[in-house]
Amino acid sequence: MIFGLFTILAIYVISISLLVYGFLKIKKYQKQDLEPKTSFTIIVPFRNEKENLPILLESFSKLNYPTDLFEVILVDDSSNERFQVSIVNYQLSIIDNIRKSNSPKKDAITTAMQKVKTDWVITTDADCIVPENWLLTFDHYIQKNKVSMLAGAVTYDCQNSFLHHFQQLDLTSLQGATIGSFGLNKGFMCNGANFAYTKSLFERLNGFDGNNKIASGDDVFLLQKAAERFPNEVHYLKAQEAIVVTKPTETWKALFYQRVRWAAKTSSYKSTFGKFLGLIVFFGNLTLVISFFFVFLGIIDYPILVLFAFFKFIIDFGLLFITNHFLTETRIKSLLLSSLLYPFFSSAVALYSLFGSYEWKDRQFKK
Question: Which residues of the chain have pLDDT under 50?
Fold first, then answer.
């Protein structure tokens, strides 16, 4: 039993160490002295976001980018009341979502694609704020690289609460794994709140065909299809001036369902590396949880649990530290308490996602 425990730990440590190596391998990118050339359509699917949308639209108005080179399409997914748009200094339109599948968000992006006239599409969420050099940084990278798809970073705007700090830690680990996998040329994950691709690539991939029965995954499934067919055209934009800020959830229940929604798509990944890493992280956390109960029952000795937890904490901290520095340039808060809770939370999410349903935008979805 002890041999199996430390075998899992060894594989876990090696896997996270590789992600750290991959993260460091991708150099930070900074915008250059270039004239903007790329035309973008920003697609924002939304449902009942009357409080958040004005903040997002205001951040668009502050973009350091020519207004004739971008437009915004808001896709209303059956909101309870119609969103009223105020006057803005850029081209903005609202269209209704045309539902054709089990995935509202994929349908919303597919619906908007029928209206897109620009070369590039960039998606974000209604509860986000984009930085002023967001499009400019994407544009400069596109001009200098042969690329058809670009994934960008997302972080939280956290208040001083443990729930927020815990979410920031969780998101930081996901962002670290995302960037690290790209550094290993095994990119399999991204975030639809900061995700760009050409319209022609979307059409070449036949959009979301093949995975539109799964409610979430408008980002990762499209990324994995692109990485499989056109690996050299899929890049990660590791640029602090292009980091999108979003809101954390306000209740543990909402957080749990959100993470279940994210986890539910893992079994459908095309990426073998993504599936392998998901299993390693799952077993790494589950083994720690099981060991805790084994110590409680007297099956294994307490020092073994402490040793396992120590090595796991050290390697996790390495990835979290470098990722957090990139995302926020501030210290990690509530690290110890979050690290103690995280294996239990993560294991519960993973196990529940295999069988349970979840809520999303006041709707019920099954696995």
Answer: none
